[in-house]
Amino acid sequence: MEIRWHHYKKLPSTNQKAMEAIATGTLHEGDVVWTDKQWRGKGTGENRWESEAGKNLTFSLVLEPHFISPSEQFLLTQIVSLALQQVIEKQLNGQPCSIKWPNDLYVSNKKIAGVLIQNMIKGEILQTSVLGIGINVNQKIFVSDAPNPVSIIHFTNKETKLFPLLKDVIHNITILYEMIKRPSQKNIIQEKYLKHLFQKGLWGSYSDAKGSFEGKIRAVDNFGRLQIEDRKGSIRLYGFKEIKFEL
Ligand code: BTN
């Protein structure tokens, strides 16, 4: 895939910019929108994404994954999470980085990166996908009520250059993206994703609509639903936003 870089000094949100440009037909697969200063970054749900100007990576990659059916869209979540896991872990001097379902990147109990994917579906086709990514790189102090933020600099004690890191992430995503074009490779992606899943196989505290409980994450199905085994041995199945990790 050919990558085209679109750099802005400041933007409200790279996802918003990408979505607007897709609507007018100006951005296509391989376009990356990134900015030094994102002042109204979108998080998941109603959340905002905090990022100090010039300190972090905030960017969006546009894909046109026509070969994926909408029911398989979780594959995109998996490849972005894995690419980030690989790139971030390489920076951390041996500290493991894991994927907190569905697509947060965690180092021990702290969030180091977040992903917001916005898909446009037409009939049975995934027309366009905007992969919005925020990585905390050189920001030392967080002022919002973001839960447990942490940055790469907290592990390295020195500044990391932003553009080489961005190129690394995009490179890894494109490799994994090529893999999901081949049906035989999809299982490998699934396995790698599970291997790096935060709290997999360990007792943890969770809460759902009925209240708090203890459970062990067992797997994630092809639709991206999380399977947690509770103390009674029953498997509970959750879609996005139906379960909270109590950390
Ligand atoms: C989350 O809540 O964890 C998702 C955060 C996603 C933030 C990124 S930063 C670049 C892109 N543009 C946005 O407005 N949000 C995403």
Count helical runs: 5
- Give the averaged pLDDT, no decimals: 96
Helix content: 10-25%
Bound molecules: biotin
Order of helical and strand elements: EHEEEEHEEEEHHHEEEEE
- Sum up the overall morphology in one term: globular
Q: How many beta strands in the DSSP annotation?
A: 14
Order of strands, widest sheet: 1-2-5-9-8-7-6
Major pleated sheet: 7 strands, mixed
End-to-end Cα distance, whole Å, is 39 Å
| Range of strand content | 35-45%
Describe what you observe in this structure.
The protein is an alpha+beta fold and 247 residues long. 24% of the residues lie in helices and 35% in strands. The chain has 5 helices and 14 strands. A 7-stranded mixed β-sheet has the order 1-2-5-9-8-7-6, with helices on both faces. The chain has a 5-stranded antiparallel β-sheet with strand order 13-12-11-10-14, with no helix packed on it. The protein has a two-stranded antiparallel sheet with strand order 3-4. A hairpin with a 5-residue loop joins strand 11 and strand 12. Helix 2 (74-91) packs across helix 4 and helix 2 crosses helix 5. It is globular and about 55 Å long. The mean pLDDT is 96.
